[in-house]
Automatic annotation (TrEMBL):
Ranges annotated as biased composition (Basic and acidic residues): 22-48
Compositionally biased intervals (Polar residues): 1-11
Record region (Disordered): 1-48
Protein known as: Protein FAM107B
Provenance organism: Leptonychotes weddellii (Weddell seal)
Keywords per UniProt: Coiled coil
A Pfam family annotated for this UniProt entry: DUF1151
Gene: FAM107B
Length: 101
């Protein structure tokens, strides 16, 4: 191979040394990084219908869990006679169901 052919083939393979100034290299790299970051952000912003529906369901389940927890705390903080009354009522319903069976 002639030296000129070698240089040409190296250029096509991307093996030739780049003669760009350091500042230009840095700016090109920064621009590439910025474009990649922008595409990633756009991909995160675009949510499919399924993702939106799943988020809605998750929020609804969290809200129901909070309500359940609040109700449980209220029952724990209730006076003793209210707890006993609730237990008696439940026991009475269980006995009535057992007699029907």
């Amino acid at each position: 191979m002639h030296p000129q052919e070698l240089m040409t083939s190296e250029t096509y393979l991307g093996l030739a040394p780049q003669n760009k100034p350091e500042l230009q290299k840095v700016m090109e790299k920064r621009k590439r990084d910025q474009v990649i970051k922008q595409k990633e952000e756009e991909a995160q912003k675009k949510k499919s219908d399924l993702e939106i529906e799943l988020l809605k369901r998750q929020q609804k389940l969290e809200q129901l869990e909070l309500e359940k927890q609040k109700l449980q705390e209220e029952q724990e903080n209730a006076p003793e006679f209210v707890k006993v009354k609730g237990n008696l009522r439940r026991t009475g319903q269980e006995v009535a169901q057992a007699q029907e069976s």
